[in-house]
Design brief:
mainly beta, signal, seven-stranded antiparallel sheet, single chain, disordered N terminus, globular, 232 residues, Spondin domain-containing protein, 2 helices, Immunoglobulin-like
Length: 232
């Protein structure tokens, strides 16, 4: 069991154990009140493989996703290890309180599950599930996911269309419910490793202040996502 994530298992009584978790349903729900998820990458892969690891430096591919929502680099990594991936199951942004579902997903012989998606609007925040062991016993399993900071960009909270790796700023505020002309919350990232995201600071100044984000809308507490996996 991956102890980095809260896991509750409700096995189906009298169900035979499976030799492989071959077919699953996966439902991902956005638990926030004002944060959107960019295109989601759901990957089933073999053991000893990670798309990210807390406490380690972000790869360039992880940075692309966390700063700009671009999952193509991570897809390339997954393809190179013969993983089975579901790209953008929501068909775009996943709005607050909304969910997306994958039904009868064939994971093949892969026995671990990873999920990544950018938190928007943030500078380099993302939702992550790192190499969770897919149960071999049929049943329904619920996992709550944290928001992580990639450690690759200062959380200045300035919405300026940035999004390319190494370019400061937030790509967009999809809810159009923040401010503008912010001076910036911070200009230096003190923790360059992947870590729990400190959360948005925000302010209530629509034309100035330190942040372009609204403190009444864009702040959050973990967990930020709920994942339900049904092993068949």
């Amino acid at each position: 069991m991956n102890i980095k994530h809260a896991l509750f298992a409700i096995p189906m009584l009298a169900a035979p154990a499976l030799s492989q978790a071959a077919t699953v349903d996966v439902t991902i729900t956005n638990l926030t009140q004002g944060i959107y998820f960019t295109p989601i990458l759901v990957t089933a892969h073999s053991g000893d493989t990670h798309l990210f690891q807390v406490g380690q430096a972000a790869s360039p591919e992880l940075q692309m996703m966390a700063e700009g929502g671009d999952i193509s680099g991570l897809v390339g990594i997954a393809d190179s290890i013969s993983a089975v991936s579901a790209q953008n199951p929501a068909g775009g942004l996943l709005a607050p309180t909304e969910y997306t579902m994958m039904t009868d997903w064939d994971t093949g012989t892969n026995n671990q599950l990873s999920i990544t998606t950018m938190l928007l609007p943030t500078n380099d925040g993302f939702v992550g599930l790192d190499a969770w062991d897919i149960p071999t016993e049929a049943g329904t399993y619920t996992i709550y996911l944290n928001g992580y900071d990639a450690g690759t960009e200062a959380n200045d909270e300035i919405v300026n269309g940035g999004g390319m790796s190494g370019v400061p700023g937030i790509p967009a505020n999809p809810g159009m419910n923040g401010g503008m002309n912010a001076t910036g919350v911070i200009n230096t990232e003190v923790n360059s490793m992947i870590h729990i995201h400190p959360g948005n600071v925000g302010d209530s100044d629509a034309d100035g202040g330190v942040s372009d984000l609204d403190s009444r809308i864009h702040r959050w507490l973990n967990p930020v996502a709920k994942v339900v996996v049904t092993v068949k």
